[in-house]
Amino acid sequence: MYIYCLPKLLSWDETDSKLLKFVSAQRLERIQSYYLESDRKLSLYAFLLVRQCLSTISGLSAFDLDFGLDKNHKPTCLSKTSLHFNLSHTQGFILCGISTLDPVGLDVERITSAPFSIMRKFFHPMEIQYVKDAPSSEQDNRFYEIWTKKEAYTKQQGTGLVPNLSKLNILSSDIYPLLHTWKYNNYICSICNSSISPNKITYIQESEIREYFLHMSL
């Protein structure tokens, strides 16, 4: 299990425009559909991060990797079907997980004032109690821990966030061991995979991705 994090993205600049030539036509259309430059940047670097990391693990050239969607519309690497990957990003942070064994799901959220009012609709009663049992200073963290774990689990299962989320208890003994959550500054990250190794978390800088692709084009 390989986990990659790309935090602290800078503002869009001329170099980012040059990197657009390394994305697929579909991804380029998606990038250009965003109104905010920050969203365009997230979409661009999410694609580049996956391509770079899959290339490193598989030994294939980043330019030879082809992508598609499985039956559940989950992105997949057609060039190396034995590699499973998943992506999540939020303001200023991109998270990528790659597994050589089985599907992986993940989610990252920026910690803000939690919308506790939605818990009755989306959280299992045990999950609600888990949030409420925490000191008031920790309740926002616990809310986003539960939320990211639910997202990671349903993505790993290939179902996405289903309508009856309140019936899904990610604190149950059969699900909880598949999940790993950690905090990075004001972000909470969760991964769901049967082969999680919390010690294998690699933090990558924006400059590393730029150098990787621009050097390959020389």
Structural class: alpha+beta
> Which blocks of ≥5 consecutive residues have pLDDT under 50?
none
Report strand %.
15-25%
Biggest sheet: strands, sense, closure? 4 strands, mixed
| Rg result | 18 Å
What percentage of residues falls in helices of 4 or more residues? 25-40%
How many angstroms does the end-to-end distance come to? Answer: 32 Å
Strand order of the largest sheet: 4-5-1-9
Average predicted confidence as pLDDT: 90
The count of helical stretches stands at 7
Shape designation: globular
What string gives the helices and strands in order? EHHHEEEEEHHHEEEH
Strand tally: 9
Structure description:
With 218 residues, the protein is α+β, with helices and mostly antiparallel strands. 36% of the residues lie in helices and 22% in strands. It contains 7 helices and 9 strands, in the order E-H-H-H-E-E-E-E-E-H-H-H-E-E-E-H. It has a 4-stranded mixed β-sheet, with helices on one face. The protein has a 3-stranded antiparallel β-sheet with strand order 6-8-7, with helices on one face. Strand 7 and strand 8 form a beta hairpin. It is globular.
